[in-house]
Structure formats: structure tokens, C-alpha cells
Amino acid sequence: MWNAQELYKIFTQRLEALKQFLELGKQPSFDDPFRREFEDLLKEYMLYGGFPAIVKEKQTKEDLLKNLVLMYIEKDALGSFGIREIEKFRLLTKYLALSTGSIMEASSACSDVGIDFRTFNSYISILANTYIVRVISPYHTNRLNEIKKAKKLYFYDLGFRNAVLANFTQVENRTDLGAMLENFVLNELASQGYEVKYWRTTGKAEVDFVIQTALGVVPIEVKSSGMPERGFLSFIERYKPKIAVVFTKGFMGLKQIQGTKVAFFPHYFV
């Protein structure tokens, strides 16, 4: 029977193994004795997030999160920032939650919510500065066919995002599982001090995340299952990184792809 202290010890060992791979290319151990326990903990975390008051509460997590969103919009947005059109601020927050992980289309957001571009930028700035959303930039090297300006957006806390959407459907039944997993991995990489970007070409080849380590540029793909797609392979062919990472389900191990050492980890390894 496992206990919390034992799981935490294994968790920290896995974090260190990931760091050793990212920074040194050291082959990690793929021993996975508590896979089911970690998968269950990850599902709960993606559903309810990591706010301490929410984590400690066993019965009313959903109500607490909904109240947290309500307090943020009605107290912080209205009181601290003087936002007059609270309903439009709420609608934009929901719009962003629905488009988590997608390239921000300001014109579409403005049209759907009914705000102008200046207001859109102001609201995004407030959400970012109050640690509700993360905005990440594209990785590029001045190549003509690489996107250079468009941003992508994620949430600092997945429980908050789910409360904004009023959606606490179990993770395995979610239609937005891919976006949730991306959001989780991004948050964990950022918490480890990495500046996280994404990569996309005008031909829509894309890599979820790109970071810089002591080994150079590292592409990171997040899959709900299966293998990476053409964008990941295109990045490897173009930049020839020493290592790459795929967070997925159903396969753990190392593969050589076009001379790049690619590690396949479960999502909870990060």
C-alpha cells in the first residue's frame, strides 16, 4: 500500500530524471511501479487544479472553484481594475477557456464578445497580470515561413478554467482533454523555470512547446495518446535538436528519429 510520502519521493525522482535528460541528455529510468496512482492524481489535478484551499477540501471543490471565479470577476475585475462591462469581461474569459492552446485570434474574439481591439488587449493584460492566463510567444529564427507574432494562451490553474466553463466532466470523457494536457505540461515546465514557446509554420506544421536547455533547443509534444505528427518531425528535420520529448500515454522509452534522441514519457512525469 502506497503512502503520500512514498509517492512524493518517487515524484521528485522523476522530476530530477526529466531534468537530467533535458539538460544533459542522460537516459532516464522508465521504471513505473505506481503508474495507476499517478494517473489518478493527475486526473484529479487537471479537474480541480492546485489552489491549496481547493486541494484540501474533499466535498465541495466545484462550488469553491465557482465561487472563486465569481469573486475574481465581481471583486477583483470590478473593484480593483474598474472594469465596467463585467459581462463582456466574463464572456472573454470563457472564450479564452474554450480556445485554450489555440492561436489567439483577436478579431474573432472581439467580434464574438462585442469589444474593440483596445479593450481586448486591456482585458488580456489584466488576466495575465493577475495570474489567470499565460500568454506564450512563437519560437522562430527569422525564417520566412515561420509564425513570428501570434500568441497562444493557457490558464495558470486548470480548476479555475473548468469553473469558468462550468465543466467538471471526468477527464477521460472530456472533448478538450488534449488542451488540458497541454496546459498541464506547460504549467509544469514554466514552474521549473523554462521559458516556454511554441513553433508553427505558415503551412500549419506545429510543435506544442519549445524550450532552451544546456543541450540547445528542445521540441516538446503533448499527445493524449499515440505518436507525434508531421509538425514534430518537421521541426526535427529543420533544427536537428540533440534531444526531444513526447508526453503521451501507452508508450515509454527512447527512440532515435533522424539522429535526435526522443524520450517518450507519461504526462505525469513532468
TrEMBL record:
Pfam families: DUF4143
Domain DUF4143, first and last residues per copy: 74-225
The protein's name: DUF4143 domain-containing protein
